[in-house]
Fold this protein.
Amino acid sequence: MHDNPPDQAYEEIGINPAYAALEPELLRALLQATDYGVLVSGLDRQDIIANRKLTQLFGLSAAQVVQMEPDKVREWAVSRACDRDQFLLLLQRAYADPYLTAYDEVELNDEPVVILRRYTCPIVDKYGEPVARLWTFLDVTESRMLQRHTQEELTLTTAELNVAQRRMVELEKLSTAGLIAAGIAHDIRNILSAMKLAIAALPETTGKALEEHVDRFTTLTQRLLAYCSPALIETRPVSLITTCLQVANLIRVQAELHHVDVRVEYEDHLPMALADAGRLEQMMVNLCLNAIQAMDSDGGTLTVSIAVVHNMLSVRVQDTGHGMSEETVQRVFEPFFTTKANGFGLGLYNCRRIAHEHGGEVTVTSQPGKGTTFTIVLPAVKAYGEAE
């Protein structure tokens, strides 16, 4: 005889006394109408009740479920699971603890996959003692797929926002730099104008040499402004071979000072590039000087190679320097990012912008201790003068 008071939950189901005789039929109708797959098992694990929804979810008829050996039913259910160990875990916990109430989610290896919310709790008598176990299975595939899709969209949106935020920071930096550059350029131009007036009064030989230096200074001023304001480019057919040979000549002194051997390699009969010659030269000089500076005082080799790749012109600037870390490679084109003690971090940013202005691209590959390669891809020119 039990001394325990009746469990309150046992008394919480009500039925109108006038319909008490219909209770079995009403419960049967309820079990068949619910969206939950329902299974009731005895403490000996023998299945007692199974409804139509359970049949639809697991592919066994209700009669098979309640008539088969319990282990056979479990074996069939486990075989349907994507993660068998996870499916078994809650079964084992429920067998070990008759009072256990728990839930989880399991995936069935259907096509497409079905996701079920699995719930189990003890069925107790009026004294609160377990007499059987209830299992329910609810198909939550649609809601979980919606959640996953929403999470993927959120992740993608977050990534896009992060990119936009970084871009806004870059633009803010460039805006500030542009104001500074414009002010500096204005002051320099005033100084240069005064210097030209003074140079005009000097003897021709001396004045000519000084005027050349002033003109170079003027060009540098214009380049300073070019970092922070978009430039109009004038494209025409340009020989990359000629440009690269000219650049090799321009950097010759720097290369000799650093004991760097400069090589220009190219295929025969290369098409012309559709480009602004001045901007193209500016980009190549920047990349080549960076390559020279990346090599140790013992020197190295700078190789500039030109070829046609997939109907585009490819220029590779390869050095045998100390290389870059993966983190540096990821950030090397960011404005104001630099690894040089006296650098501004605008050179490679400007190289990328020039490539984009020409409908091309510049990429980088590098390994610490194995050198760095910058690859520029530019549109070629067809025989009749249009870009490929």
User: Anything to note?
Assistant: Residues 108 and 114 are 5 Å apart (CA to CA).
